[in-house]
């Protein structure tokens, strides 16, 4: 569960926590009144309000669920490394498949539309396999730039905002296509893909804001204006 994102936008918060305690009948299940909450959920949970309305005391656990056994063994005292947020290259790679899978259906639909539209010409309509396949390839590259390259290379891409970083990843993808002579057969096609690929990549990379550990709800809203 992406607690950081859920707490930031309010879906994992005080009222929801109190509601779940009541709905689940937790008071009848356990004989204590302590509730361990993920550390990154602290931005959305008011401990004193939870205690007031539910009777449970909130204890902020470690950042990672994998540290819970050690946390419990230490009488619910977190070691410094349990409080430290990591967002390394490997951590980002673990999150990437989620965004890739969620967006695949949209990629398939848009690719099919572009493939069919490639047959339009001045004489009417005639399916153009070469142009159609190139269009699909370029869309796939834009998709990979936004969902794979952008998140994976996040610290090294220029700019602070995710939109700029995503656009930079898109430009890298376009450069690969251009050097491979797959960015279009004439000037207008090349310019169209030059604008479209970074734009799509930028949009897709912005979806990664909720999975990162250094964004905030206000920052995301500001970036999307």
UniProtKB/TrEMBL annotation:
Keywords: Membrane, Transmembrane, Transmembrane helix
UniProt keyword Transmembrane helix present: yes
Membrane-crossing segments per the record: 102-120, 132-154, 166-184, 190-217
UniProt key word ATP-binding: no
Protein name: Mercury methylating protein
Organism name: uncultured microorganism
Classification of source organism: unclassified sequences, environmental samples
């Amino acid at each position: 569960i992406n607690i950081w994102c859920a707490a930031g936008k309010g879906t994992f918060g005080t009222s929801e926590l109190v509601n779940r305690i009541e709905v689940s009948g937790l008071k009848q299940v356990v004989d204590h009144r302590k509730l361990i909450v993920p550390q990154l959920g602290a931005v959305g949970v008011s401990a004193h309000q939870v205690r007031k309305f539910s009777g449970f005391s909130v204890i902020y656990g470690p950042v990672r669920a994998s540290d819970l056994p050690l946390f419990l063994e230490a009488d619910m005292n977190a070691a410094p490394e349990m409080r430290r947020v990591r967002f390394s290259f490997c951590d980002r790679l673990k999150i990437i498949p989620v965004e890739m899978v969620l967006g695949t259906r949209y990629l398939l639909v848009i690719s099919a539309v572009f493939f069919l539209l490639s047959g339009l010409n001045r004489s009417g309509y005639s399916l153009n396999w070469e142009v159609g396949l190139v269009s699909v390839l370029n869309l796939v590259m834009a998709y990979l730039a936004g969902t794979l390259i952008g998140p994976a290379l996040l610290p090294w891409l220029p700019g602070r905002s995710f939109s700029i970083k995503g656009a930079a990843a898109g430009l890298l993808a376009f450069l690969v296509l251009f050097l491979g002579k797959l960015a279009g057969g004439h000037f207008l096609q090349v310019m169209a893909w030059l604008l479209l690929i970074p734009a799509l990549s930028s949009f897709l990379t912005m979806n990664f804001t909720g999975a990162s550990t250094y964004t905030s709800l206000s920052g995301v809203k500001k970036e999307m204006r």
